[in-house]
Please model this.
Amino acid sequence: MAFSRQAWEDYQYWVRADPKIAQRIARLIADCLRDPKSGMGNPEPLKYELSGYWSRRITQEHRLVYRLENDTCTVVQCRYHY
Model:
């Protein structure tokens, strides 16, 4: 598992601003590592210019966006909507 620079900054924002959301992100990431294409957060493949990426719902407004490459899950965003 890896974080892009932006995703890590997003995660640090949640740790400071709303620890409950940071905990939810941690649970979503753990679930993603168990099964990247199903589980909590309603995982769905993204389309068009984000083809190859997946998203999971953090809140109604925010999404966890990640990419699966070989055996690595790279988190690219965990704040805002894609």
